[in-house]
Design goal:
globular
Length: 158
């Protein structure tokens, strides 16, 4: 049964969720029929989700760029809010590809402010300097082609 459109987040609520939430979960298709589901830090710009990651996620996305991203908050059912994005991921394989992305600089600044102090480093905002390195440390950009949102605060009380 689909989620009622009456429960959808507004554009402003979606932006607020995406700009203030610390963690997303990304599902990728692994070898065979396995699903790899991983929490990651992320950025949000021009309707796209950005993350810097490595390992199985990058290997999976190189093989099959289909991805699902979930960002949600709260624990109790009446308070759940979230967004599920289904789309295509692009692995930025080089600094040249990073430089060519129109929104990555915005995301670098955004994530530098959002996660300042998150690993115990100084807490003043600074640009995220991450770049393609080694075999698989890469920026990944997910461009959604399907979005489902929900705000259970909008469910009428019985």
């Amino acid at each position: 049964m689909p989620i009622s459109r009456k429960l959808a987040l507004t554009t402003e609520q979606l932006d607020e969720l995406m700009l203030t939430s610390w963690n997303m979960r990304i599902a990728t298709s692994g070898p065979g029929r396995r699903i790899n589901l991983t929490p990651l830090w992320f950025g949000w710009a021009s309707g796209k989700i950005y993350t810097y990651c490595r390992g199985q996620k990058v290997a999976n996305l190189r093989r099959n760029p289909a991805a699902t991203v979930l960002v949600d908050r709260n624990e109790r059912f009446p308070e759940l809010q979230g967004a599920m994005f289904q789309g295509t991921a692009r692995v930025l394989e080089s600094s040249a590809e990073e430089d060519g992305d129109p929104d990555l600089e915005t995301v670098r600044l955004q994530m530098g402010a959002k996660y300042a102090g998150g690993h115990g480093e100084p807490s003043e905002p600074r640009r995220n300097e991450a770049t393609a390195r080694g075999a698989d440390w890469r920026w990944v950009v997910v461009t959604p082609d399907r979005l489902v949102t929900w705000d259970n605060f909008k469910i009428p009380k019985r």
